[in-house]
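Quick one:
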Amino acid sequence: MGSAIGRHSEGLSGVARKLLFYLLLTVGALCFLLPFLYMVSTSFKGPRELFDLNLIPREPTLRHFRAVFTQIPIGRALFNSAFVYLLQTASVLVFSSIVGYALSRLQFFGREFVFNVILLTMMIPGQLLLIPLYVLVVGFGWADSYQGLIVPGMISAFGIFMFRQHFRTIPQELIDAARVDGASELTILFRIIWPLSAPVLITVGIFTFMGGWNDFLWPSLVNRDINFQTLTQMVTLYGIGGQAGGQVGAVMASSLIAVLPMIVVYLVFQRYYLQGIAGTGVKG
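Output:
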């Protein structure tokens, strides 16, 4: 009788813990979602309810979006961001995977030392590298150009780490069989290993694309020409530089335009993204 009561009380305590856990998750999710929902709502609100805290506009309008597209060349900025960061992401996938493959499957002197140096660079704050990187870009004549935005991010230490960890989980017998058949190392990488590495490719791609898309500091340092401004740079300058003229709705609308592509990318590739995160670091 006592043991039955004990099991029942343990069951109740377990249910209480789960309820508390889900309650905390719900509160945390609301804390993260509320600013985004307010931004979306304000983008469609009319002038009379612009500063109300209601999340459902009573008089929805598209006037703020029309203001954004007429006041700044946001279409050009959207093209710049897509061009720069798609090209940058593609180069990171190619070059970082090559280095990751070499560090995981090729035998050469100093391999572990090179890998440790790459890991060390991940611990250096990016802000410390801004000045020397800026001096190099200006010295090459790449200020106010696509090269200044693309080239510094064409390879990623994080991408190298992710690829190296994942490639170590692929059976060596598969690679040896390809070598026996006369395949080169690049052929093995791109025609055998890449098709088996979709989750980690998508994970690195999402991290690279989102990191570049959301970056404001580097584009603002290396680029002053409005024809080469990225979407995040233009939207930020629009909101704080006076071009919006105090139009809160227009500022929110421009921010929503900048955020939406990232939401779409994450929702489309969410499953592969989670698989890539879970599938790396299995082997040291």
